[in-house]
Structure to design on (281 residues):
């Protein structure tokens, strides 16, 4: 394994460390969307989770970021013990012997074709950014500046995510890479899956993306799911410079979220920048 691969391996402690870094250093999470999605978020206090199998970028959550080396015997026995736990010990041993006779290629094909897509479909992803004033993201993700960008207090948002007891949620920054460096699935199952979910081409680096990953959900063939959150974590709402629905957002927040500051983005006349102007004083 190369040094670059070793540096990308993430155990539970490393995941916790990255989450702690975000909570201590990134006070606001920004999320861009169109007006219908923004209204839905406010009315239902739910955020959108996407199924990575339907992402537009073919290199996002790319299977090529995982490689498969020699199948260890421990993987075969663990697989039987997990899938055939209802059998007694002798029957499980018999199943392990049968599995040991299968070539690595057959097991790897089964993982690629069935197990990996199944694992990916159990992960719902919501995409955020450290930036709320980026021209490109306003153009791409907020209906050409007609939409909305929410600013969430990260600490309150993270604590207020409403998940079931068997679900897990992690917030991680995206790894932007100039090359595809696959990690061995059999070396450490957790690291390759996380690496696949948070690695993107360096061409997207300007987005400064942070991902919320919710595991143990069942998306199957669904493109999306919704997750409840504490709406008091919304601290700011930015309306695009072409947004024409100021009244709805002002009235909604006045009644339901009076502490939220609402801004309208305006074009800077002297530079290619957006300036937020407070509109609900």
């Amino acid at each position: 394994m190369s040094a670059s691969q070793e540096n990308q391996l993430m155990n539970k402690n490393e995941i916790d460390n990255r989450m702690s870094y975000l909570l201590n250093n990134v006070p606001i999470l920004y999320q861009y969307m169109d007006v219908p999605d923004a209204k839905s978020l406010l009315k239902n206090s739910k955020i959108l989770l996407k199924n990575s199998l339907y992402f537009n970028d073919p290199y996002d959550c790319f299977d090529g970021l995982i490689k498969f080396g020699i199948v260890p015997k421990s993987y075969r026995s663990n697989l039987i013990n997990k899938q055939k736990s209802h059998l007694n010990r002798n029957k499980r041993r018999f199943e392990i012997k049968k599995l040991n006779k299968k070539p690595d290629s057959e097991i790897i094909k089964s993982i690629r074709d069935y197990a990996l897509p199944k694992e990916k479909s159990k992960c719902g992803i919501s995409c955020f950014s450290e930036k709320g004033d980026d021209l490109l993201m306003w153009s791409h993700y907020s209906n050409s500046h007609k939409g909305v960008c929410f600013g969430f207090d990260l600490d309150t948002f993270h604590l207020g995510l409403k998940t079931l007891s068997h679900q897990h949620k992690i917030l991680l920054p995206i790894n932007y890479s100039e090359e595809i460096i696959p990690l061995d699935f059999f070396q450490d199952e957790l690291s390759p899956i996380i690496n696949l979910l948070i690695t993107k081409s360096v061409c997207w680096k300007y987005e400064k993306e942070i991902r919320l990953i919710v595991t143990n959900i069942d998306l199957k063939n669904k493109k999306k799911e919704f997750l409840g959150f504490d709406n008091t974590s919304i601290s700011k709402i930015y309306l695009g410079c072409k947004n024409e629905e100021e009244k709805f957002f002002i009235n909604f927040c006045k009644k339901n979220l009076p502490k939220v500051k609402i801004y309208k983005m305006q074009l800077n006349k002297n530079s290619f920048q957006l300036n937020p102007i407070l509109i609900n004083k």
The longest strand covers residues 209-215. The chain has two domains: 3-66+123-278, 68-118. Residues 68-118 form one domain.
